[in-house]
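Entry 12.
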Amino acid sequence: MFELLNSLGGTIFRQLLWQKASDLDLTYAQSQVLFRLAEHPGSHMGDVAKAFGVTLPAVTHIVDRLEEKGLVVRGDHPADRRVYVLDLTRPGRTLVDELEAIRLRGMERVLTRMAAAKRRQVLTGLEALVDAAASVPEDGAHPGRARRTRK
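Predicted 3D structure (tokens):
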């Protein structure tokens, strides 16, 4: 199933999305940070690093480039001057909206090639996947199963 989901990510709608990003000299990592900030405005740099499983210096480099492009603004945290918070600029928000529209149009193109019954099956399966993911504990322990400890 994981391979199928990865395959889906490589289809035409993803290609269209990254073609636009490439035209703007926007890397994959930069676009992912933009999408993250659109969903979580005012995120701390550390939160972004944690979300992507990368180091703070890696995020700092990405944010530096996004600031140079005028897409992100870095501000001081009101309670802790050592912490930076990130927000999209108006052009950054506009770009995210445009990239999201491209992604949705691509998905619509894919879905129109499927019969209605198949679309319903996919929807049912995705809903089950989301429900299962939502019920997984954060520490990775399986519900109802004893946690194993590492030696």
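Annotation: The chain has one domain: 2-130. The helical segments are 2-9, 12-23, 28-39, 45-52, 56-68, 90-111, 116-134.
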